[in-house]
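re: ur question from yesterday

yeah so i grabbed the chain u mentioned. its 243 aa long if i counted rite. heres the sequnce exactly as i have it in my notes:
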Amino acid sequence: MTAPLSCMDLQSLILVVDDDPDLRRLITEFLYGHGYRVAEAGNVEEMWQAIARQPPDLVILDVMMPGGDGLTAARRLASEHGPPVIMLSALGSDTDRIIGLEVGADDYVAKPCNPRELLARVRARLRRRASAEVSGSAGRLFEFAGWKLDVLRRELRDPTGILIDLSEGEFSLLRSFIEHPQRVLSRDQLLDFAQGRGREVYDRAIDSQISRLRRKLNDRTAVELIRTVRNSGYMLVPKVTAL
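ran it thru and got these structure tokens back, copy pasting raw so excuse formatting
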């Protein structure tokens, strides 16, 4: 069932995209029972139609579906600054999870999954998104080496003022560095700061996301911004100033 918008209009809207109607119904009813509005889509085309009708606060997206794969859809959502995405897939190897995160997904859950684990991840992702918006509303604007990060608008601009596209995961990582500048952060700490507790640690996934973030930064400046500290983690090198 899908909750009428009028009765829960203050709750987050979750879009569940999966070609398995039984699994989709199970997830939908479980989330609805825990206070969320829920919309459903059986494939990628239906997902875009649902988003056009009403943008969701979060998308739970299957990887393998007829008529369009979830990885391509996740990449497009990330490039368009869409809602956070939790990938849901029968492909549960480390490599599959890493690929999901690399295309821009914010989390990756292997099937079959415990509905309560999925619920915990949904709550954690929505809390982080809300926290970023609330804390940003106080005028959270930061400058480092000529770059400017606007936490409220979730915008990063290079020293010349050009807007740089960041996925949800890249933004979370950069914000973690900004809030802990000139300090070595381990992979575990970065997962905690950027992704939250309640998930397994995938070192290569963090390395891949940092590599993508570093590449976007290095394309615009010759100054080293994120340093790899061997056997320890990573560090944002420049001083950070709150504006």
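noticed a couple things. The longest strand covers residues 13-17. also The radius of gyration is 18 Å.
anyway ttyl
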